[in-house]
Each structure stands twice: as C-alpha cells, then as structure tokens.
Amino acid sequence: MNPVSYVRAADAGAAVAMGAAAGTRYLGGGTNLVDLMRENVEAPSSLVDVCGLSAAIEDTPEGGLLIGGAARNSALAGHPAVRARFPLLSRAILAGASGQIRNMATVGGNILQRTRCTYFYDDAARCNKRAPGAGCDAIDGFNRIHAILGASSACVATHPSDMCVALAALDAEVMLSGPEGERRLPFEAVHRLPDGQPDRDTTLLPGELITAVRLPPLAAARRSAYRKVRDRASYAFALVSLAAAVELDAAGRLAEVRLALGGVAHKPWRARAAEAVLRGQVPDEIRLKEAAAAELAQASPLRDNGFKLVMVERLIVAVLSDLVAGNAGAAA
Amino acid sequence: MSLLDTVRDAAGRLTGHPEPGAVPDPLIGKPGAIGRSLPRIDGPRKVRGAARFAAEVPADGLLYAAVAYSAIARGRIAFLDTTAAERAPGVVLVMDHRNAPRLKPPALFMTKPQAAGASDLPIMQDDSIHWNGEAVAVVLAHTQEQAEHAAALVRATYEEAPATLDFEAAKRRSRHPDSVMGEKPVLEQGDAERALADAPVSVDLIFRTPRHSHAAIEPHAVTAWWEDGALVLHDATQVLNGVRWTLADMFGIAEDRVRVLSPFVGGGFGGKGSLWSHQVLAAAAAKLAGRPVRLNLSREGVFRLAGGRTPTEQRVALGAREDGTLLSLIHTGCVAMTPHNNCPEQFTFPARHLYRADAIRLEQSVADMDMLANTFMRAPGESVGTFALECALDELAEKLSLDPIELRRRLEPERDPTSGHEFSSRHLLRCFEMGAERFGWHRRAPTPGTRREGEWQIGLGVATATYPYQRMPGGAARIVLNRDGRAVVSMASHEMGMGTATAQSQAAADRLGLPVEDVTFEYGDTSLPAGTIAGGSSQTASIAAAVAAAAAVLATELLKLAGNDSPLAGLGVDEVEMRDGGIGAREQPDRHERYDSILRRAGRDELVADAKAPPPRELKRWSMHSFGAQFCEVRVSAVTGEVRVSRFLGAFDCGRILNPRTAASQFRGGIIMGLGLALTEETQFDPRSGRIMNPSLAEYHVPVHMDVPPIEVVWTEQPDPRAPLGARGIGEIGITGVGAAVANAVYNATGRRIRDLPITPDKLL
C-alpha cells in the first residue's frame, strides 16, 4: 500500500472541494478500496472520508425512499421501511459479504465496488481494467465467474454487488455532487459496459460523489424476491443472482414485472428483454423460458461459464413461479 | 526403515517386554484422568489473548519483513531493481540473491532422520526461479506497512525458460516415485487386470481431485534473531526439532546453536509440518541486518510460499462376483509433484488395508511440474484416496443391488489384505452399525432421485474412513518429580489447537499415578527433550511412548532412592506400579510409598528421569489402522444445483479416546475440512503461468458456518492393545471418507455421479 493522506469531510460540499484533486478518492467503509490499495491495484495519494455525510433513510413525498450515500449496508437492510416496501433490496444486501463487512460498507461505496476478477487483483497478470492496453488474461483463463452478457474483447469482468442488482430492478436514481454541480442519474446509467475502456466502471465524472440514492415508489416491490446462487452458503460472490418484482392483474397477467441479473455482466443487468416478453402475459413455464431466452439471445459464454445460461433460465422460471404463486423467494 | 531402528528400547528393558506392543499398556482399562472431558488447559490464555503466537513475540529493535514474489514459473531474474524499495520510507535493507547469506540447500524431508525441508531447492542463493510466486526479495522496514509498500516497489525482469505447468501435459511424462512414504509405488497380488476383465460385475472409473491450499487461521509466521552466532527462532511449526536440525545444517552451525520455540500454533494441518522458505529467509535476513526480524506471511504469502495438496487423477476398478466379493481391486493414478520434493500423496494407502480381494493392483505415479512444492494436508493420500475408492464401491454396490454397508460387510478381511499381518484392533463394521442406527440409514431411498421437499432433492450417502496408526521414532521425554510430589513432564512437542497439552497432562497423570492437577506438561521448545513431528496423527502415541519410557526410568530411580527403610524395599521395577501419588507393589495395596516421602527421606529436592521412546516396532508386526464410517445427508436444489449438507455423522474406531471433548472437536474439524474438499475448495493454478489465481479467503472457498450442519460424532471405544495408552491418533481420520460420503449422498439425491471435486453447483445443473 502506498503512503496516503487522509481527511474526513464535514459535508458534501467540503468533500467535493477536496475530492476533485488528482489522485484523490472518496473513502466509505473501506471494505473494497482499502483491500485494493493493499493489493496495489488502487494507489490513491489521498483519501477523503465521506462516512460523516448523510446516512439518513427517509420517506419521500411521493412514497419512495431517499437513502444517504453514507448509510451502512446493515442499516439499510434492516430498515423497517425497506423490509416492508422493498424487501428484495433488504434480501439482496443480506445475501452479500459478511455481517462485519455489511456493518462497515456504505451504500455509495457498494455501488462503486470493483470486480472480483482474479486477474484484476493480481498485478502479475494482464488486465485492461487495471492497466489499460495490457491485455486480458481472463478471456482464456479461469473465467467461471465472468460475464456472459455485454462483455468486450477487452474485458469479461462482472460487477460483484448484490445490492446494485436490486437497485437496478427498482429503477433507483443516484444523486451526484461534483465540481460541475449536482445531477441525478438513472441507476442503469451509472455503470457501463466495458467496450474498449474497461478501466472505467461507471459514468461518474472525475470528483463526483454519490450523495444519495432515491427509490421511487413501486407497488410491485412488495411482491419481490432476490435469489443468489453461489459456491458456498455465505460469503461468496454470485455465480448468478436475480432480483424480481411482480404485480398481477385480476386475470393473473403480469401488470408489472421487474427483473435484474447479477453475476452476468460488467454492470447490474436489467433484464428488459425478458420483461418485455412477460409484461401483460400469464407467466407460465413456457412464457418464462421464452423470456429467459430473449434475455440470453445475445449471450456469449466463455470456456468455463456456459452453465450461467442454464442458471439464468432456471432462476427466472423458479423465482417468478414462486412469486406468482405467492411464495416468498425460495431459499435454502 | 533406517529411521526406526536407532533408539535403545529403554522401556522394554525396564519392563521386561522388549517388543513394543507385545503386552498391552497397563493403563488400558485403568480408571483415571484419561477419558475425562477436561477443558483445554490452553483455553483461558487464548481467550484472554495471553497466549503469545510467533508473530507476537516482542524483540528490541525488531524489523518487519515483506516478500516480493516472482511473476514467472521458471527461468532466471534478468534484472532486479531494488533501489526504489531501498529508498522507501522506513526501509532498513532489501535482501535478495545477491546479498543473502550463503546457505546450504535444505535437506529434504525423509532423506535424513531430522531433515524437514519441504523442498531441497536452494533458498535465495542465485538468480534462478523455480515456481511462480517464489520469493525474489525480502524487505526489512520499521513497520509492516512500510515493508509491504517497499516490497511492491521491487522491480524484476526475467528470462523465462520453458516450464511444465499443465498437469495434463505433465502426466504424459509421469514416473514412479522412489517410494510412497516408505512404501513401494507399485503393489501387485495376482493378475488384477485379468480378473477385472473376467469379473461378472465390474466398475472402472476415473476420479479427479483438485489442488488445495492450506488455510489455517494463523498464517505462517516467524520472529527470529541471532545471539552470539546462535539463532533463536519463534516459529509456527509442527516440527520443532526438524526445523532446528535443518536450519543448523543450512547455516553450518551446531544443532545446539539453534533454538526453536513454538508454544502455540494457530492450526497446522500439515502446512506447518516442514521447513519452508520463509523461516529460512527470516533467519537469513536477521543475520544480514544484525537485528530481530519478524516475517508474518500475508494470506497471499501462505498460498505462494507454503504448499498444499496436489491434484490427483485416480482410476479405481473393481471386479466382483454376484455376491459382491471382489475378484479384483485396482487403484492407480497420478499426482503432480516436483523434482525437488517427495510428497506423492499416498492415495492408494486405503486400498492396501481396507478390503478383501483376490487380486490387487495398486500403482502411484507422479508428474513433475514447475510449481511450489506440494505438501502434507490433513490425511495426505487417504483424504482423496478414499474419495475415489469409496465412490467406486458405492457404484459397485448399486450394480450389485446391494446396500453399500452390506457390500462392505462382505469385503471385511480377516488379516491385512496386502501385508498379511494381523490387525491390532479393527472394528470397522461396528462403526457402520453404530452410525447406521443413529443416523437413520434405513430411511435412505434405495432408488436415487426419489426423495424431495419442494425443489430440494434429499439423499443419504456413506463411506469408510481410515487412517493408519503411526508413531515416529526419535522422541524423548523428561520427568522432573518435585519434593512436594508434583511432576513436570516435558518434550519438544506441539500444540496446534488440538489439545496436546490437555490430553498429555491426563495421560502423564495416569502414568505417574498423580491427580492431573499435579502434572504440568511442557512443550513447544527445542531446549526440551526432542519431540517428533506433530503429523501423521502420530504425536499422541509418540509422546506417550516416550513418557512411559521416562516413567520406567523414574520408577527405577525411585526404588533406588527408597532404599531399605521403605515398604518398597526388595521390590524390582517389574514388581511395582505408579499409583496414588507414589510407588506401590502390584497386587499388594498396602505396600506403597508416596513420592514426596521418598524424596524427603533421601534429602532430594527433585528427581529427574530422561528416556527415549523405543522404536515403533509394533508397526512392523501388526497392521495398525483406525477406521470409521461417515454418514451424510444432503439437500440438492433441483433449480440451482446448490448442495447443502443437512446432517452428518462420523462413527470412529480409533482405540481409546483420551479426552472426549477435544477428540470430538478434532473429528468435527476433520469432517468440516472434508466438506470443503467435497464441495468448495479448489486452488486455481493457471496452466499458462503457473500462478495461483485465488490466493485469498474470499476466493478460495473453505466452508463457512452456514455450510456446516450439525455433526454428530461417536466412537467404538475399543482400546488398541498394541498402542501406547490403547490410543491411535485422531487428527486426520475425520477428513477421510467425507468426500465420498457427500458425493454418494449427492448421487442418492439426484441420480448424478460427480467424480471430479469439488461438487460445485454448475456440475449438477
């Protein structure tokens, strides 16, 4: 780890004033950034600690929630309003990391966590995300955990967050503050596909800080689930995960359906093609398989991860069937 | 074996029984401290944080070390730039092959009685590179953070040489090792291939197990310094005397100029059973700097510098009559190894001793690769060997329409199937009976894939567990009897968290006829009488034999001291026993004198008895093995392929259990490690670079709490009449058979046979 200067920001304005300087990074719970600094993947010269900024979780006038960027993952997962009105978000957070890590990790930091690609972590390996232009050792290497959707010839990494998969399904908005002022981004526009620039995980501008996440009201979220498939029962990143929310009309058709996938792409993957197949339809098994097929039409598996296509289909069928039948998401 | 026959048979001479094991240990069946669930003696200190581990030993002027690792597998360092590292804040010096002290290569384990080298490669003596991750430089700084920062600034360029990094390719040039832990690599009885071809029922299967890395909670660590040309090394080791001897040999100093201390080890599992490069590098750096050095490996460092279990490819072929009896048993295969170590993962060992078969063929090959030396990892060989053998047996049972337990009953041998020796004690079938009853084996559906709750498919599996009894030569013990009748028993042995100090205090108390409170067991320091490796589940018996020998010497000395004014007058050592805090005549309850009385009358403050253990000749005369039956229930998601172990039971036959509390913990720990072997653990060795790609506990998946179900352990409690205390070791058997029990349960749940570990969800989709 490089020597680094550290300062705690009193408020967002002060943070942004300091955060724009070259070599500066915002520090949340440190559960990912500090690891990466120890691994010599990240080498900031100064850290601006933003844990003292808003961690409030408040109702919005329109019936949604406004979540401060410094809210801890544990606090968000356990918040009564989240558990009652957005249970998939609570479940997604609790499916991630460990209790200790969730107690430290912030919402803003979780959104910005970086891939778990093992070639990204090892500075003896080639990685375009870590060192642009170096090449990618994952494409022909161990790529069981890598992307099947939206990857490029430069990068096949996946985004590791569980929370973000739920936020993608919920049409969240991210509130940003930066040197050029404040703006909001739809959640789907925060993370990007790798294309030729896998070193850029997000569309955030230099010095921009996540100050809050806004959840719009969503009736369907009350009938929602998050299911994660992983190699051990806890403390493992998703092979594939699915956030789903549905609302049925009187005839048993899907008046609303939200689907997002984790572990399949460089970003939390909103499954809009599958949603389009299902919206207004009775979600029987044939229809659900059609939806999965539509979403996976562009999938291109690597040497080790073809199983993810099967897993995605199985999850879509099982989770939505359970939701339609009125069961909470099936878990082990 | 030349190692075995060097030590005088002290106990035999004194007791009139020259052959170890010829007469059962008199402590067998005698009530006392043995068998009581005493809490761990080291527990309170560990809970309070007062137990000092190797990385916590303070030293004046201590420097902290960090390692820079090679990025290629084979070749030489073309250019090594340490200038930035040397200029970094807090750095005192950078050691590399150009300035490291000149050292002999480590003597490889088993090449000399005390040799403990995990490999015999020179350590930082030239510019050559032998595995990806080898240390190329060690940075010493005032803080750990400064050292790690500077280590990241070391720049190396390499001239790469062709390397063998692909197990598949290496297998094509496989060879027989000189020996497989002292056994021949090929064993043939009859024409097993012919018998297989002619058998009415047969299976012929290939099994694969991956690389595993050690993941003890305490990363390997040393704190080392030199005093007037003598080395003091606080280490986390399972082989104190081996580390001492090998380091002395490397540095060219007398053995008594090296002192190794290791009072607490945060888990070993075989990973700390050798001398690795980091201990040598710390001692060399301390010499170069002239100051104490602490080298506490990072988790990545453990993966790069300390080896693990090697991958195996195994063939098991069984040819049977219609009644299940075996015409042919074939177990062959290949493992990855290196030309610079000798650890061929003895996967054929279970098949040598478990089942009756008319013809047997066992063969082990090794494929040389350019990699970190592989090493012992809990039940090396037996862990992965039982996976293949016991899965194959399950497949054969199904073909025969026999219950898997019934098949094993029909294969029970009268004598050891390959050595022909009498078993010292064997109650394998009793384990199956006990386990089947307690586990509810009758609830197993004979047809796979037929029990289901919602999406969860439920299955039961069973497998045999086995591990040899071993006792290492070369151990010695000292008993110091004090004037107040208390005893201090000492031996340079090891406490890695399994309860050595506790169980040995109990055993020594019974041996000396003292309450356990009056016995102190000292260990973990080479200034004590020589210990043996805490490995191969051998330490309990090795210590017990040495303490018994020392007790016999003590008894002789006490009789001399007692003289003619004692009720013991005229008794010979073979006529007395140690009981009730003193010495008494056998079968004469009234003829007795207490230790304190004898010492006071003789005007002595203390009496010291030293003795070496007799060589383990019992191993040559009897087939001595522990056995067990592992029962597993799994739930497999029909949606995701995820496997959840919902219940587990191990029934064990390991002789006498010294301390049920610590024993149960050892058995459970072994089973949990077996769950990792079955379901989650795999070291990713990139065949393009030879690099281990998942050197962290986030990506190398050991089981977490949620992966571990309630585990019941039971035992037969049948003392082994040929083993000291009647006890065989228990540290390793717990992991054996677990992989097969899980895989067989997965088959019973799903109808899918998974023959390559780990059984990850993708394999069951």
TrEMBL record, chain A:
<protein>
    <submittedName>
        <fullName>Xanthine dehydrogenase family protein subunit M</fullName>
    </submittedName>
</protein>
<dbReference type="InterPro" id="IPR002346">
    <property type="entry name" value="Mopterin_DH_FAD-bd"/>
</dbReference>
<feature type="domain" description="FAD-binding PCMH-type">
    <location>
        <begin position="1"/>
        <end position="220"/>
    </location>
</feature>
<dbReference type="InterPro" id="IPR036683">
    <property type="entry name" value="CO_DH_flav_C_dom_sf"/>
</dbReference>
<dbReference type="InterPro" id="IPR005107">
    <property type="entry name" value="CO_DH_flav_C"/>
</dbReference>
<dbReference type="InterPro" id="IPR051312">
    <property type="entry name" value="Diverse_Substr_Oxidored"/>
</dbReference>
<dbReference type="InterPro" id="IPR016167">
    <property type="entry name" value="FAD-bd_PCMH_sub1"/>
</dbReference>
<dbReference type="InterPro" id="IPR036318">
    <property type="entry name" value="FAD-bd_PCMH-like_sf"/>
</dbReference>
<dbReference type="InterPro" id="IPR016166">
    <property type="entry name" value="FAD-bd_PCMH"/>
</dbReference>
<dbReference type="Pfam" id="PF03450">
    <property type="entry name" value="CO_deh_flav_C"/>
</dbReference>
<dbReference type="Pfam" id="PF00941">
    <property type="entry name" value="FAD_binding_5"/>
</dbReference>
<keyword id="KW-0274">FAD</keyword>
<dbReference type="InterPro" id="IPR016169">
    <property type="entry name" value="FAD-bd_PCMH_sub2"/>
</dbReference>
<keyword id="KW-0285">Flavoprotein</keyword>
TrEMBL record, chain B:
<dbReference type="InterPro" id="IPR000674">
    <property type="entry name" value="Ald_Oxase/Xan_DH_a/b"/>
</dbReference>
<dbReference type="Pfam" id="PF01315">
    <property type="entry name" value="Ald_Xan_dh_C"/>
</dbReference>
<dbReference type="InterPro" id="IPR008274">
    <property type="entry name" value="AldOxase/xan_DH_MoCoBD1"/>
</dbReference>
<dbReference type="InterPro" id="IPR037165">
    <property type="entry name" value="AldOxase/xan_DH_Mopterin-bd_sf"/>
</dbReference>
<protein>
    <submittedName>
        <fullName>Xanthine dehydrogenase family protein molybdopterin-binding subunit</fullName>
    </submittedName>
</protein>
<dbReference type="Pfam" id="PF20256">
    <property type="entry name" value="MoCoBD_2"/>
</dbReference>
<keyword id="KW-0560">Oxidoreductase</keyword>
<dbReference type="InterPro" id="IPR046867">
    <property type="entry name" value="AldOxase/xan_DH_MoCoBD2"/>
</dbReference>
<dbReference type="Pfam" id="PF02738">
    <property type="entry name" value="MoCoBD_1"/>
</dbReference>
<dbReference type="InterPro" id="IPR036856">
    <property type="entry name" value="Ald_Oxase/Xan_DH_a/b_sf"/>
</dbReference>
<keyword id="KW-0500">Molybdenum</keyword>
<feature type="domain" description="Aldehyde oxidase/xanthine dehydrogenase a/b hammerhead">
    <location>
        <begin position="48"/>
        <end position="162"/>
    </location>
</feature>
<dbReference type="InterPro" id="IPR016208">
    <property type="entry name" value="Ald_Oxase/xanthine_DH-like"/>
</dbReference>
